């Protein structure tokens, strides 16, 4: 079993991922941490020193490696589904779950978050909300290719597990 959690920054992929993995008794992997370990650099360092295009190549390579793992829940980076044919790769090798969260909630969470995210660094609340709307327009068509969609990951862990069992 291989589950990919996808969705915008701040949608709760890691939180749900940890819970799902614990409930199902399988491994949890955070893709950004996986990239950082493999490259001996943090994500912000990769963006700053090598640029976004290089980060996307590293992200693709990590994804290819992760499709070899079994019995795992993978929290992907927010942009991962939207580059190369990453979404097709994930759909071929596992079950994709899109955490579809309202942009205003995302903005509130991202403003409070301590995780450094190069794409939104230094943005005010208003700038962030505008940026989220704009990037979601481009990203949603990719996210919507997911096999499953949930809008309340905080209360839907059991529902997700039930849905996963039905399609496995
Ligand atoms: C990104 C999301 C981040 C990380 C990088 C780029 C994006 O992951 O991969 O900063 O393009 O949306 P999270 O979704 O875990 O914040």
Mind telling me the CATH superfamily name?
P-loop containing nucleotide triphosphate hydrolases
CATH architecture name: 3-Layer(aba) Sandwich
Instruction: Quickly count the helices.
Output: 8
What is the CATH topology assignment?
Answer: Rossmann fold
Q: Which strand order does the major sheet show?
A: 2-3-1-4-5
Mean of residue pLDDT values: 95
Can you identify the CATH class? Alpha Beta
The strand count comes to 5
Share of helix, binned: 40-55%
Name the shape in a single word.
Answer: globular
Bound molecules: shikimate-3-phosphate
Distance between the termini: 8 Å
Number of domains: 1
**Order of secondary-structure elements:** EHEHHHEHEHHEH
List segments where confidence is low: pLDDT < 50 over at least 5 consecutive residues: none
- The structure class reads alpha/beta
Give the C-alpha Rg.
15 Å
Strand content: 5-15%
Largest sheet: number of strands, sense, barrel closure: 5 strands, parallel
What do you see in this structure?
This protein is of the alpha/beta class. It has one domain: Rossmann fold (3-Layer(aba) Sandwich). Helices cover 55% and strands 12% of the residues. The protein has a 5-stranded parallel beta sheet with strand order 2-3-1-4-5, sandwiched between helices. Helix 2 crosses helix 4 (52-66). The longest helix has 19 residues, at 125-143. It is globular. The N and C termini lie close together (8 Å). The protein binds shikimate-3-phosphate. Shikimate-3-phosphate binds at residues 9, 32, 43, 77-79, 117-119.
Task: Note the main attributes of this structure.
168 residues, alpha/beta, Rossmann fold, five-stranded parallel β-sheet, 8 helices, 5 strands, 55% helix, binds shikimate-3-phosphate
């Amino acid at each position: 079993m291989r589950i990919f959690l996808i969705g915008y920054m701040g949608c709760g992929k890691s939180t749900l991922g940890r819970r799902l993995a614990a409930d199902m008794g399988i491994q949890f992997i955070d893709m950004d941490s996986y990239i950082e370990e493999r490259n001996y650099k943090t994500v912000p360092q990769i963006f700053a020193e090598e640029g976004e295009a290089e980060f996307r190549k590293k992200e693709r390579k990590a994804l290819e490696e992760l499709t070899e793992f079994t019995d795992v829940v993978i929290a992907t980076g927010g942009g991962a589904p939207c580059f190369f044919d990453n979404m097709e790769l994930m759909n071929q090798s596992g079950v994709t779950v899109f955490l579809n969260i309202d942009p205003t909630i995302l903005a509130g969470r991202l403003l409070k978050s301590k995780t450094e995210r190069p794409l939104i660094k230094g943005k005010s609340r208003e700038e962030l909300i505008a940026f989220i709307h704009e990037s979601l327009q481009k990203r949603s068509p990719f996210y919507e290719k997911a096999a499953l969609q949930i809008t309340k990951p905080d209360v839907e862990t059991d529902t997700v597990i039930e849905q996963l069992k039905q399609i496995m």
